[in-house]
Design brief:
The complex is a heterodimer of chains A (about 160) and B (about 180).
Chain A: H1 19-34, E1 50-51, E2 55-56, E3 63-69, H2 73-79, E4 84-87, E5 90-92, H3 97-107, E6 118-123, H4 129-141, E7 146-150, E8 152-153
Chain B: H1 12-28, E1 35-40, E2 59-64, E3 70-72, E4 75-77, H2 82-91, E5 108-113, H3 119-144, H4 154-163, E6 168-170
Parallel strand pairs in B: 2-5, 5-6
Antiparallel strand pairs in B: 2-3, 3-4
Classes of the chains: A alpha/beta (about 160), B alpha/beta (about 180).
């Protein structure tokens, strides 16, 4: 490595950029904390409907996602395009929901919070109500009645 | 004059690296703000209860068939968005119109869908019905407290809701196979 030695008179020192990385790292940390990598790969195609009377889902840990939609291209060859239910990382029949919810409840350690848990139904808008009703019935059977139909904000 | 022996480590490139990381996270970030229509499902019963002998005037029935066509109180309706106003009118009738509800407390909205109804239509209708109640609550809050419903305390909100309770009952869906 060549070292350049300056001779002669000192010039005005340049603006130090040493603190710039700190600033950027702070931003970086912020985004790393805020980022939530999508934990489950979507195996069904979902475009949620639009609605106006939306309520934000607070407390992510208390929300269990249930996906309903036609299988994506990757799976469509095998499974066809009839809408299916996806729980976690796999396709499941609506009958598997009680087990899924029981597992979700295990994740929430505090039993007092169990009744605050919500099932977020992320449903493709063109799906017929039949399969949605099956899922709703399963949820009602195990008395897990707080449900939210996820939707995008409809700008009027 | 003291001569510098060790040159400063150039920290300039650190910023570049950090920026690169930053950009990566910016691109991959989807700040998820999940929001949706909150619904409390009715409790499960083995046998559907016999249809309650409610006075017909107090029931605002909305039916959606498998072709996403609407029947509101027995009349076909083309425009989904007009449900909201119809529902509001119905709920706040206070016995004026003999065909509409006696009072908000007695009014019931009954929603019946078919298994062939599209989810989008269902959400649209549910949204309109909820919007009707939200608007009524807001109007009531303005009347009583002079503030928007959203800005009321929890207790006051409850009070408003007691006067105009939200009752959207959902019957078991019909199913007509085609």
């Amino acid at each position: 490595m060549a070292r350049i030695k300056k001779k002669g008179k000192k010039e005005a020192p340049g603006i130090t950029t040493a603190s710039l990385p700190d600033i950027v790292f702070m931003l970086l940390c912020f985004f790393m904390v805020v980022t939530k990598m999508r934990d489950s790969e979507l195996m069904v195609r979902i475009t949620v409907p639009a609605a106006t009377q939306l309520q934000k889902l607070e407390k992510k840990s208390l929300v269990s996602h249930i996906f309903i939609g036609p299988p994506t291209q990757k799976y469509a060859d095998k499974l066809g395009t009839a809408p299916r239910v996806q729980l976690n990382d796999q396709f499941a029949p609506p009958e598997a929901i009680p087990e899924f919810i029981a597992n979700e409840k295990k994740k929430v350690k505090n039993p007092k919070l169990h009744k605050k848990m919500t099932a977020a139904l992320r449903v493709h808008k063109e799906v017929k109500m039949g399969i949605v009703t099956d899922v709703k019935t399963e949820l009602r059977k195990i008395d897990f009645r707080k449900v939210s139909y996820l939707a995008t904000d409809l700008v009027q | 004059m003291a001569q510098r022996k060790i040159p400063e480590i150039n920290a300039g490139s650190m910023a570049d690296i950090a920026f690169l990381l930053l950009v990566f996270f910016l691109v991959t970030t989807t700040i998820q703000t999940d929001s949706g229509l909150s619904v409390l499902l009715p409790p499960y019963v083995e046998e559907p209860p016999p249809p309650e002998k409610k006075n017909k005037r107090n029931v605002f029935s909305v039916q959606i068939n498998g072709n996403n066509e609407l029947l509101v109180r027995g009349n076909p309706l083309q425009d989904v968005y007009s449900i909201k106003d119809k529902a509001k009118e119905f709920i706040m009738n206070y016995g004026k119109d003999p065909n509409s509800s006696d009072s908000p407390k007695k009014a019931i909205v009954s929603l019946l869908n078919d298994n062939g109804t599209s989810f989008e239509m269902y959400v649209l209708v549910y949204d309109q019905l909820k919007a009707a109640y939200n608007e009524l609550w807001d109007e009531a809050a303005m009347d009583i407290f002079g503030r928007h419903y959203e800005d009321l305390s929890r207790k006051d909100k409850k009070k408003v809701r007691e006067d105009i309770p939200l009752v959207i009952s959902e019957a078991e869906p019909t199913s007509f196979d085609k």
